[in-house]
């Protein structure tokens, strides 16, 4: 069988989202194993993962997948959803040491604030923030404005306004006006 033959076959979604067979899963997924927790400094890596990491991380990853599905991340190539941000916020708020504290947004978490001071993020592109409807309205309004500005009567009006501004020295009049206003 060629290697490529089975590579690009669609995966059955029922198998991905159904409960996995018990023999496929280690006994620790989703809950802390029974028994006394081992000393975190002396236990094996497997015990550390089973007792301290997986009981917290795996529900976070499940919540991440549900949120990604809600944000329609699996439908397109680009999305405004940042999975690491979601997981950071989720893990911070679900930390057992913070169980009595109120929910904290990502950008209000102290270590995130400190990190962003030194490593500011670029803004999210407008194409990811707008819905398809909002984007189409914006494009249509720019197109209508362009078509109106191409009209010969509008061009004539704009030329007349430009000439009027130059003749009356409108820019200097406005500067003088604001200088007087700021002096008050």
What does this structure look like?
The protein has 184 residues and is mostly helical. The protein contains eight helices and no strands. It folds into two domains: 45-122, no CATH class; 132-183, no CATH class. The radius of gyration is 30 Å and the shape is elongated.
Give a nutshell description of this structure:
By secondary structure, this protein is an all-alpha fold. It is 57% helix and 0% strand.
Shape: elongated
Query: What is the helix fraction of residues, given as a range?
Result: 55-70%
What proportion strand? under 5%
SSE-based structural type: mainly alpha
Q: What is the tally of beta strands? A: 0
Features:
184 residues; mainly alpha; 8 helices; disordered N terminus
Structural topology:
Layout: H1 13-17, H2 45-70, H3 83-93, H4 110-118, H5 126-129, H6 132-150, H7 152-167, H8 170-183
Helix pairs in contact: 2-3
């Amino acid at each position: 069988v060629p290697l490529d033959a089975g590579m690009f076959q669609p995966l059955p979604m029922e198998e991905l989202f159904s409960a996995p067979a018990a023999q496929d899963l280690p006994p620790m997924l989703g809950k802390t194993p029974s028994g006394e927790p081992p000393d975190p400094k002396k236990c094996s890596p497997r015990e550390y993962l089973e007792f301290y990491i997986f009981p917290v991380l795996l529900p976070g990853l499940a919540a991440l997948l549900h949120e990604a599905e809600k944000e329609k991340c699996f439908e397109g190539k680009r999305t405004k959803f940042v999975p690491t941000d979601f997981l950071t916020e989720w893990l911070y708020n679900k930390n057992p040491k913070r169980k009595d504290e109120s929910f904290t947004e990502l950008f209000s978490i102290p270590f995130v604030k400190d990190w962003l001071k030194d490593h500011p993020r670029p803004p999210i592109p407008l194409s990811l923030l707008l819905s398809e409807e909002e984007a189409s309205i914006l494009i249509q309004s720019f197109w209508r404005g362009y078509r109106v500005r191409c009209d010969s009567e509008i061009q004539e009006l704009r030329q007349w306004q430009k000439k009027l501004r130059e003749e009356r020295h409108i820019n200097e009049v406005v500067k003088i006006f604001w200088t007087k206003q700021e002096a008050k």
